[in-house]
Task: structure prediction
Amino acid sequence: MITLKKEDLEKIIAHAEKQFPEEACGLIAGVADGENKEVKKVYLLTNIDRSREHFSLDPKEQLQAIKDMRANGLLPLGNWHSHPESPSRPSDEDKRLAYDSSASYMILSLMDRGNPVINSFHIEKNISSREELVII
Amino acid sequence: MTVIVAGKKKEYEEGLTVKQLIEKENVENPLYVTVTLNDEFVQSANLETTVLKDGDEVEFLYFMGGGR
Result:
């Protein structure tokens, strides 16, 4: 299970709306106790692909985020990205490019603009499974 | 010499290259990892020739991307 604060979800949605129709992306960091994770901070990064169909995190911003996590005693828990025009589930490319089976991959769908949907997934060897996501 | 890898101090022999460090650290999927040395990005072509020095700070950044 992974928990995400409502205010952090709102930050993610606001950033994704701002980047729409391009995909938006970022990192999530927090604490973990076994399989239970708590997101303490979300990072809003630049999608250097500037695409409505792809995303790649800006490596320079990724480096700064990793250092910030370390300085604040947080663990990297995974990443998030938006699907401006498709559902909240990993695409074939999302699965192919997921290299960390322990990470949480959050996907925010803006397909229904008035009703953004976010889910979290684990991806291992091209197979995704939904992770329980609790908004607190 | 002491090399700081992902924020942790590690002891390695002098003359170690970045490529050798990747191997010693058992970095998974190294083709999808970007390496920074003292906050500077190391080009893939230079991994074999870049020799680490005492006190160097190294980070391994996994490529993160996808698509719809």
Q: What stands out?
A: The interface with chain A takes residues 7, 28-29, 32, 34, 36, 39, 41, 59, 61-68 of chain B (CB under 8 Å). The longest strand of chain B covers residues 57-62.
